[in-house]
Fold MARVEL domain-containing protein.
Amino acid sequence: MDVVNQLVAQGQFTVLKQPLGFIKILQWIFAIFAFSTCGSYSGMFKMSVECKNRTESDLGIEVEFEYPFRLHQVYFDSPTCKGGHKERLFLVGDYSSSAEFFVTIAVFSFLYSMAALSAYCFVLEKYRENCKGAQIDFVVSAVFAFMWLVCSCAWAKGLSDVKTATDPERVITLITACDEEETRCHEVHEPKVSGLNTSVAFGFINLILWIGNLWFVFKETGWMAAISGTYVPSQEKQPAPDAFAQGGYAQQDPYAGSQGGYQPEYGQQGYNEEGGYSQGYEQQPQPTSFANQM
């Protein structure tokens, strides 16, 4: 607890109120929504096959499927309407590549957003030192923005194919018994894919967030100032002089120096304590008396 309290005490949480940190929080949240709505999905649809002989019919054929949507591995048993025999049928298609790609990008976005927020709050000085941290952040953010564009488009196309492959009316065409005129086949329950539709929406929202975040990270890189010719590397920057010293203005003698400088006081000609005559210039902190010459 002492370590946690110390980190919290040293944290600079005001950056979370700024666009740089606030957008990272939104990226972190919407990344969770994206991979949770897609990766935790499980759906089901139901069909009915009514044979001429009612004892051979199956009025509740349930077909369940889930992430990562390897539908060619999903099977169900359907009546043949011929002596009570059943046939095993498989759905068509494997859409795991686009779904897993989408979830992977969402998970890595979640992890990177969390790491970036930690850097903003606890090591902001090192992040801005020489602008190296901001430049790395910009490059990584640009990569994530591009990857969100690719994975969102790929998953939108994959979801469209999943809807087609799990449409009960389309699956009914795979049942051989439904080709007979005396057999009645129809859908009973369609799969609910509203969660998957939401995952695609979250994907494009993440794309907008990461593209928008590029501008605020770019301003931290110093590249804009370097292009305009006003950027000075941090190691060459000098600290600003104090405007006021304690008790008043800080005063410096512009002519003071270690060698060859102007000396404000001159020694006087006179006799020293041993009776000798001293002649020349002497630097004294404050003249208190003058020697009298007879």
